[in-house]
């Protein structure tokens, strides 16, 4: 009988070894050589997959996002969701993915300065998240959930990155059962975000001002 057990790729083996090293020793590997020794792998083989330890860590975080998006795409009902519902599903699913690696996430966010994390470790993650956010915002505009505003709407996607940062920092401090408080925080933050991006009293005031300007000018 043919053995169908899937053997982890070299890239996945390195990523998993990197995570295991941090979780067991409470610190990052000092060098590529040190991690390679744990893998019984020579440095030359390591460099076939990653150029540095930093590249491994960026790949780990990018993998979290890819797993999240794959799960969403496999959900048949996801395509029918509104933009608001999709963002809720995104955050809930991401937290489910991260739960399997919570100790590592806590280590990362507590042992790195926030700015350094978001500019280095999370850089690839942030770029891919930006692509997702742009698509979501466009769907929101087309569906009337998001108002297109001159000079502003092109930057809407950036807000999702900082919203994610807030959710993650809330989550690693959450001690409620099954992280119920995080679920509540996600729901409230997403609704708040779409209330701000949607039609607000400020937009009504601006529309009225433009109308009056046109009327009196004529």
Describe the structure using short key phrases.
11 helices; 218 residues; Tetracycline Repressor, domain 2; 2 domains; single chain; Arc Repressor Mutant, subunit A; mainly alpha; elongated
Which helices and strands occur, and which strands form pairs?
Elements: H1 10-25, H2 32-39, H3 43-46, H4 53-74, H5 83-99, H6 102-111, H7 114-121, H8 123-142, H9 156-173, H10 180-197, H11 201-217
Helix pairs in contact: 1-2, 4-5, 4-8, 5-8, 5-10, 7-8, 8-9, 9-10
Report on the structure:
The chain is mainly α. The protein has two domains: 7-51, Arc Repressor Mutant, subunit A (Orthogonal Bundle), CATH 1.10.10; 62-214, Orthogonal Bundle (Tetracycline Repressor, domain 2). 72% of the residues lie in helices and 0% in strands. It is built from eleven helices and no strands. The protein has helices at 10-25, 32-39, 43-46, 53-74, 83-99, 102-111, 114-121, 123-142, 156-173, 180-197, 201-217. Helix 4 packs parallel to helix 8 (123-142) and helix 8 packs across helix 9. It is elongated. 17% of the residues are buried.
SSE succession:
HHHHHHHHHHH
Radius of gyration: 22 Å
Determine the CATH topology of the largest domain: Tetracycline Repressor, domain 2
CATH architecture of the largest domain: Orthogonal Bundle
Q: Please, how many domains? A: 2
Helix content: over 70%
Structural class: mainly alpha
The level 1 CATH classification of the largest domain is Mainly Alpha
What is the total tally of β strands?
Answer: 0
Q: Please give the alpha-carbon distance between the first and last residues.
A: 85 Å
Shape: elongated
Question: How can the largest sheet be summarized?
Answer: none
Q: What is the typical, i.e. mean, pLDDT?
A: 84
Strand content: under 5%
Number of contiguous helices: 11
**Low-confidence residue ranges:** 1-7
